[in-house]
Amino acid sequence: MEFLDNMKIPGTCIVDKPVYKTLFFKNVQMSAADKRSFDSFISTIRLYAAFQPDTINIPVYKDKIRDYSSVVVLLVTVKGEKIPSRLAEVIMHAIPYPMMLFFLYGEKWQLWMTGEHVNPSNPSQMVLENMVHSEWMDENQAPFAISEVRFTNLYDFYTELLDTFSKYLAAQKGMIHVTDGTEARKFLYSMEELEKEIDRKRVQLKKEDRFARRVTLNVEIQKLKQKLKAQLQQMKEGE
Fold first, then answer.
1. Residue 59 CB: number of other CB atoms within 10 A?
2. Of 24, 62, 140, 158, whose CB is crowded by the most CB atoms within 10 A?
3. pLDDT by residue (tens digit) across 89-104?
4. 47 DSSP β-pair partners
């Protein structure tokens, strides 16, 4: 795949082995809906690459809440273009390492990334931090080149990739003067939450028969759209 070649992943890091759905079912507490989602949306899963001290010269990073002893690249072939965010969350919770999660469909890809840490009050629970993802991208477009980031340790390595990706996505959305990955993720999260709320209201509107309630929902949708437009304009003006 051309985009993987353009990422310049060292050959020593490439694994390219299948990961079977049954491993997720056995090792992760999934609801019946999550299991159906796996079967409905996913065709194949492959562990494409692993960045760790024995495959590349990058030290491990560990502190009280983070364990960055490996960074993995997962390729998930899906059956359609619509992917629920819950699917990405389940996969990321299932594998206790930061990852570059690529969904593949035909000749296109989507990348999902997030920082993560252990919940201090429940060490067995992984907390995902402001997940970001691209739209469907063309085969020849690479999100970044591995060689362009710091190799000081695996936390810096992954965080810099995540920041680069986040700033790229924010710039695509219209955020100018974006120099900080954390700010970019906050902006992207805010935009996505508004878009999700608009979609939820639209679904309610389609199901609603009462005229008065339909009027109320239409007003609420217009207000959310105006808020979304205002935030986008604010970002474009760099305020």
1. 15
2. 158
3. 888 888 888 999 999 9
4. 17, 74
Task: Give the tens place of pLDDT for each residue, 58-98.
Answer: 999 999 888 899 999 999 999 999 888 889 988 888 888 89
Cα 202–Cα 207–Cα 213 angle in degrees, nearest 5: 75
Joined tokens for residue 77 = 């072939």
- Confidence at residue 80, expressed as pLDDT on a 0 to 100 scale: 92
The tokens of 139 are what? 């085969």
Residue 64 has a pLDDT of 87
* Percent of the chain at pLDDT exceeding 70: 96
Residue 238: pLDDT over 60 = no
Q: Do 20 and 69 form a contact (C-beta atoms < 8 A)?
A: no
In order, the DSSP letters of the chain are: -HHHHHTT--GGGEEEEE--HHHHHHHS---HHHHHHHHHHEEEEEEEEEESTTTSS---EE-SS-EES-EEEEEEEESSS---HHHHHHHHHHSSS-EEEEEEETTEEEEEEEEEEEETTEEEEEEEEEEEE---EETT--S--GGGS--S-HHHHHHHHHHHHHHHHHHHHT--S---HHHHHHHHHHHHHHHHHHHHHHHHHHH---HHHHHHHHHHHHHHHHHHHHHHHHHHTT-
- How do beta strands 67-68 and 71-78 pair? unpaired
Q: For residue 122, is pLDDT > 80?
A: no
